[in-house]
Queue: 2 jobs
Job 1
Amino acid sequence: MSELDLDALIDDPGTRIIVTCGAGGVGKTTTAAALGLRAAERGRKVVVLTIDPARRLAQSLGLTELDNTPRAVAEVSAVNGGRLDAMMLDMKRTFDEVVLAHATPEKAEQILANPFYLALSSSFAGTQEYMAMEKLGQLHKQAERSGDWDLIVVDTPPSRSALDFLDAPERLASLLEGRFLRLLLAPARGPFKLMSAGVNMAMSVMNKVLGAQVLTDVQTFVAAFDTLFGGFRQRAEQTVALLREPHTAFLVVAAPQNDALREASYFAERLRAESMPLAGVVLNRVTGTHAPDLSAERSLAAAERLEESDKSPLTAAVLRLHADKMQQVVGDHKRADRFRRGHRSIPTVEVPALADDVHDLTGLRQIGDLLTA
Amino acid sequence: MVTGKGGTGKTTVAAAMALSLAEQGKRVLLVEVEGRQGLAQLFDVPPLPYVERRIAQGPGGGDVFALAVDAEAALLEYLDMYYHLGRAGKALDKVGAIDFVTTIAPGLRDVLLTGKVYEATRRKSHGRLAYDAVVLDAPPTGRIAPFLNVNHEVADLAKVGPIRNQADAIMGMLRSDVTRIHLVTLLEEMPVQETLDAVGQLEALDLRIGSIVVNMVRNSPLDDDALALAVKEKLPATEIGKGLRSAGIAVSKGLVATLVAEARDHAVRVGLERENRDRIDALGKKVTTLPLLPDGIDQGALFDLAEELRA
């Protein structure tokens, strides 16, 4: 069981991309922001890509408008020569930009107005993950070209399962390269007679159910998209390849609850299977106390004694609070230990729970200190 | 309809609502639509098929049936019902058409899912309604308004035809007096903000809010005066030291300071929770609170929550 040294990670000029991932609600975004800030104040030129930050966290980074472009975060100490930019992902806009960048204006207009494109770019489950990857690819290219940044910290979309992030591009690609779409495209490319009777029947039913316009829309969209990208899968694979390179470090964030730890295990196993570089696991928001010797049981018993004898209700109340706390402390540590024992080869770092949400740079610096304590 | 941000316990609350209705002797259908078998996990039964199956009985003679709606199966069922497709449906499925249509057209997907709820609320058996109530474990708050705005979702997709008519009928039901949307939240910033946003979006669609369910509430052992002192870390150390000694606990200076600091953290959190509660109350909706169950959620806990909901 080894300790995860995050200062060594962010100080290493070979670390160019850090991806924070984990189940929803474990503090991924805060961890990404805190690490980005710390790296910047230690001299790195950092851009943080957040997906869906809490309002107060967004404000602390100066992210008041969602314009899909990195903006400098004010009040970051530049004494070590670093800087911090931050941005919030706008998935539809990112998708639109991809279309605009790769198509003739005429064709782009056609795609952007297509109802299927609208559905796909705004509400398909997986588009957000895919666009986060796309944006990461863009930032990486820009960083290589301009030297604006030497470290990209990217947060992954909130999802029930941390694995969605790795699976979404493939899902989107297989949808757009699926058999049915190939069949739909066939008439646009070759003689109609090549289509089998089964497909003809399928088309006729679809026409009846959805109306003829719908299938035409799908066909135009797919045809336009297909020539545009020359294979969606290939593009997805390129971005995923970026994540396999040694300059990338995955950081799995997990709160010490069973669900989150289970997700973290799945994710760690998956990263290994995909040969993706896992730097370690942040065990986040672990409840701690400075009075571990006063157990929950003794604390409660003492509170009850005081209540029975009607002495100092205030002391009884603080003892009850401590008893609650100790129950959490014991539970959190038990679960965190179990996780560490089950994953001996994975470096971990434990971050204590704070009473208040982080809402300014001071709070983020504090998290940064805790991450590297 | 029960919605809530991920992690707020919306599936648990939906199940508890279904149970509380069953305890009043009703036949209830509990439906999930997100394909993650949350109900099976909650009730500790094998994954639910696309078949209505009884998963719990209320002591008052009612029943809870559960159904995991799957958009693809619903589309095949729909095609069969209206077009008597039979084998042709299978052919469609085989070329990937069903998968494709339900994936690439999220609007259609939602119409199929809400359509199943619509069908279940109207279904007759032996001359009476098959179910007295249908409880839907709906998509999360971030997606609930578009999910229920079925009319709009298919507007671009199907301008005429059976899907259009179906969407109109579903929308009619959703806006009528039989439908209520309950939003589950915790007293934390993000879930509360999403709840406020969702209420605004839903009301703009003429949909009716039932209640806001504030989940996992912990009561503070400190009264308001003590909380006010605790926040400033000004709880009387001497009194606490004396109290501890009289309860037979050996007192070090560090212990009292730790307890005071822990009380401060607690008071800060209570303060944040109250701010969030005020934001919920400002909506002017019915608010129901459910306690945090320290031992986690099992069937017994669901019955406890069901009782709280009825109270």
Job 2
Amino acid sequence: MSVFNRRQALGLMGGAAALATLPMPAIAQNRKVVLGALRFTSHAGSFVAYERGYFAEAGLDVELKFFQAAQPMAVAIASGDVDFGVTAISGGLISLAQKGAVKVIGGGLSEEAGIDGQKILVSDAAFQAGVTSPAALNGKTFGMTTAGSSFHYMGSKIAAKEGIELKFKPLQKVGAVIGALKSGQIDAWSIVPHIAKPLAGSGAVHIIGNVADYVPDYQVTTLFTSEKNAGNERDLTKSFLSAYSKGAADYNAAMIAQTGGDEALNAMVDLLHKHVYNDQPREKAAPSIVNGTMRLNEGAALNLASVKDQLEWFQAEDLVSKDITLETLVDGSYVETRG
Amino acid sequence: MEIRLDAVGHRYDAVEVLRDISLTIPAGKITCIIGPSGCGKSTLLRFIGGLEQPTLGNVFQVGEQPDGCLNALTYIFQDFALLPWRTVAGNISLVLEDHGLPKDRIDSVITDVLARTNLSDFANALPKQLSGGMKQRVAIARALAVNPAVLLMDEPLSALDSQTRDLLMEDLVSLWSRTPFTAVYVTHNLQEAVRLGHQIVVLSRRPGRIHEVVTIDAPLDQRRTADPDLQQKHDHLWHLMRDEARAADAELVHGA
Amino acid sequence: MALETSAHDNDTPARPVPYRGGGFRPRHKRGVGLIVFAILIAIAELGTRQGWISALTLPKPSDVFWTLVEFWQSGRLTQNLFPSLTRLVVGAFLGTLAGIGTGLMIGLFSAARAGFVPLVAAIFPIPKIALLPLFVIWFGIDEGSKYALIAFGTFTPTVVATYGAVDNVDRTLIRMGQSFGLSWMSIVRKIVLPGAMPGILSGLRISLAIAIILLVAAEMLGAEYGIGAYILQAGSLYDLDRLFAGVVILSLLGVVVSFGVGKLETRLLRWRV
């Protein structure tokens, strides 16, 4: 079975809008840039900008480098093998930022009202035993990939708000968490809707709540680059962000606003199918691509309040050093920030 | 107790090893079996002790076991076969433990056999601390501990240097002289056979048959190397064996 | 000819016979290992302090040290070490016990040999980590699957070492036991088992090292506490200080286990030449 990384899974919730706030920078001089990507729709901004030549217009000779998981992508940025990437904020990303290796420069995807967000799931056994709302999760086990992953963060936020205790079970991979949940080895988990819904449909698990009720305006994924690019290559970084934002805007327009109708939607699915679910025939891949639709952050806007909350949680859990400031993690000078 | 072999023959697959061996091992005497390499003398000894079964013929024990005998047919091996993880006393204790004897009985037997083999000072030594001759003495003590009806000795002195061999032969002679025991002694060494044997069975080369049985009447404790009678027996035996040994040797060279 | 030269030994030049022996004999050099360690750590410390080794490449050894100190003082060392040691002891105990049992069976009974040897050969190369999800289903996500993984990992090398050791027990000793009329049980208990002990113990050395390796794998699934879980967490947090602190603890555990087996060997194999 193909095992999803959770950030890859989150990536399936893509969607973005035009980057009005970003001034088009001076054309860079055909710079060679490596862009880390996962084969998921949350990376649609990258794929569209690449396929439609927005990167080339901005003077960037982009090479896509595909990863199986987001964690190695963050490490590859730190090692200088990759210039830009998209992933969730994890303890690993923060630690790499602390070591002066990476910097968050923009938003990829956040939970927002009106768009289906991440779901809280419980196993059938737990559901039958009466766990029908998050408040009943006291003392139950909650699945996560690793300590300091966003699952850990979400679970903690749920527990804190309900005033309950959760036992976290690290299982390394999303596939392992799904297996453990289905077989009742763990009681609860949270995951993006297009994974949550089919699971719940099978009857093996049940949806008992929305993460958005516990983590409002959750900034799920961010754009990040090496500190060197963020600090010393401002033109390059600006060129990248504007080209990426154009791609994200195209995606949001075609898939969410559907301004171009079915024709534009199909064209977008064709484009994405080159990179996403490309091991499946178009007719099988298309529903998955469409179901994975999420709005990407317009203009790569970043919810600083959510990032700050996440950073503080990591510090409170003693997962990362207390010395790290928001400025160490984020360079907010590139995109519109909130909070 | 005596042992009688009745028309014993044996083959390993296509190779005939022994043919038509009929022999009586008299009680209270030492019977030496000599013969060239590969004549089946060690195999014959394994038949006598019941460690292997002949394809033809039978081996009988005749008469009653002596009182207090724990293991009627008891071997002494060429390579001593001592457990290296047990002390001298422990190695002897090994063969007594399975008989349900009381602890003090076992201890007294050990003390007794160690005294008889002059090993009392080495009761707590490990085999690795002992010379080859000492190890074989321990093996002899172990064999004596079970008060055997027949001692089966398979080239017991072959692994030792010649001085040690002489010393141990003297030990065996004095042991036998104090308490005569029945023994089958397999060797390829004529001196040993002449020194220890009351009856010497000469086997032919493969397939081993009885070539001749020579008896020596001189009492064991009076045999001297310079004795002309013994020298004559020795020469006679050598004469019997020489051609067989040479032929056997040639067979091996030709890979037969 | 030899006589001729000796007759002329005043005229012919005499040279000392050149020495060609020596070497190829490992000698015990005290402290050299420690010096190598100290030099490597000093280089790492200097490099990370002066910046020619970046903080991404290696943590400062002194930081690792203080992380260990803090780990111990905060009580989290015992919190993580205790579950790991329990898993190690229970898993390795079950695995080696079953391994020695099966190895003895293979060594003693032809039917067991015919039946089990191909099975063990088939099981041996399986990366036990690959079976972890299956173990979670079979033995539960809690301690059961962790014990099972470590037990399974130590089982096969112990089986192979044990039946190899039984095969190597001096047959004349067994023949001797039979010739003295020892019971089958006595022969196994007093001859085969002690005779196989050197091989079993060197197998134990390997299987316990494997147990430590598998500890990290076992704690991948559903372990809140444990040295392996701590290392995995540090890895996913890219926290090099804690990562190295955890690795140091595993190394020390390996040294302690190896030392323990060494002590056991000198105790049980005193008789060896």
